[in-house]
Design brief:
This protein has about 150 residues and is α+β, with helices and mostly antiparallel strands. Helix content is about 35%, strand content about 40%.
Amino acid sequence: MRKSKTFVNILRSSQGYTLLNALIGLSILLVILPFTAPLLKTLDSIPTIYDLNHLEIRQFDFFISFELNRSQKVVINENQVSFERSDGRVITLDQYQNQIRRQTNYQGHTTMMFDVTAFALERLNENTFKISFIKEGKLIEQVFHHYNISSPEI
């Protein structure tokens, strides 16, 4: 008695890779292929939180919030902000060439942000100020609050 060959038996045969296997694989590929381009385009358009510029701006925002929480007094100038701490240290942020730098007691500096073309501070009211800067052609504005903001003493 001869055993009939079913579709599953043909695929599981030990006779090697057949033309039928190739045709099935090719047909599956041809069915899936038209869906991959729109899917990849959609994935590419989703903004990522791991963009380096985005992370740099978030880190800068976090640093300013951190300094505000530790400071007793904030002094706002048009191009410099100073955070006066209870231990006597003064932390300043200002623009130096194309970067925003941080200084402690007006000595040394640490770069906080690169490729900044403009940097400005504006006092909005007695407890609020705004930091604006242009990075890679985009205007970025951030508003911060503190209970003790003053203008520089002349």
